Sequence to fold (351 residues):
Amino acid sequence: MRSTIFGTGIHVPGEAIDNHRMARIMDTSHEWIVQRTGIEQRYLAGEGVTTSDIAIPAARAALENAGVPAADIDYIVFATMTPDVYFPGSGPFLQRGLGIERTPCLDIRQQCAGFIYGLQVADALIRSGQYRNVLLVGAEVHAGFMTWSAWDVLCGRSDRKVSEEEIARNTRFRDRTVLFGDAAGALVVRGEESSTRGVVDILLYTDGKHAERLITRCGGSAYRPYFRPEMAESGEIVPVVEGREVYKLAVKLMPEVIREILERNDLTLDDVDLVVMHQANLRINEACQQRLGLPDEKVFNNIRRYGNTTAATIPLAFHEAKEQGRVKPGDLVCFVALGSGLNWGAVLYRA
Ligand code: ACO
Fold:
């Protein structure tokens, strides 16, 4: 039994917010953001729009693309670091939104590596023979930790002048808040017997000694109560990003894990048709590409239009790569990601 990606679907909320709009509410510039990150725009969910709200249309699109009715889904894996509520996870809300009942839902918290960890769970469930059709979703609404005012200006609903005080306040954490975008990506992963296509191998790592490099210091048992009112004001609800350390780890560990997974499958980079990396920063991906000596046609990036969408990134990128004809039947695709945990790894997938 091989796990095949039978259908894909995506959903992004609202309208694109470009860097020029960001520069109207905080002290930043299109040039700084593009030069450091490659990001030109991102989408952010409006107030009241939850992670499962954007996951539902993505999942419906994936089901339609696969030609699989929701009722045939026998397991749901939901990867997110921004669930609708503290608990339960977003899976039950998605399940309910799809109009199905009883299907088990597993929420996982692997941040930017959520998709590859989720794919390993889906693959293991399928190969063990327990389940046939697994719905794997990666979705994030990061807007909840953007402690900005002036959303009306940001979203183009108002042309008012933003006060100096607001700009100063919105500029706090600008090194991080400009990086993220909201999105959902979904896959129908299906078990097929004696298939030539499907998941070839998955290699994952976690190194807890780097746990504090990407961390949100609120909302857990380390705090009494979990959330204190002043956490929003002080910015403790905003993730801590040790950007330069993460950058160094990413450009070392992502190429390393690609080489390792290829080697243990007696494959080389020449056998790979497309590498789909997590999209945290275009500069990271360019450095990885250079270290691996990969030509442009073997790498797919879309961070320019979406920013870092955390667990949604790889399903979103894979869906677009497919739509653009960059993935042909028989191609060997390598997914690679690294994120908070520190969790990282690679997947080899035969399309
Ligand atoms: N606009 C304008 N200027 C800015 C901005 C901004 N948005 N952000 C920071 N600056 C300024 C800083 O104030 C600083 O100015 P100074 O030199 O006068 O003090 C200067 O730019 C450099 O700031 P740094 O924070 O040191 O910027 P750096 O070059 O490290 O780039 C970045 C930051 C883009 C985050 C980079 O470190 C990076 O890409 N890291 C890896 C990606 C990453 O960690 N992403 C998060 C992953 S999330 C996850 O896994 C859940």
Summary: The pocket of acetyl coenzyme *A is lined by residues 28, 32-33, 36-37, 111-112, 174-175, 178-179, 214, 241, 243-244, 246-247, 280-281, 308, 310, 339-340 (CB under 6 Å).
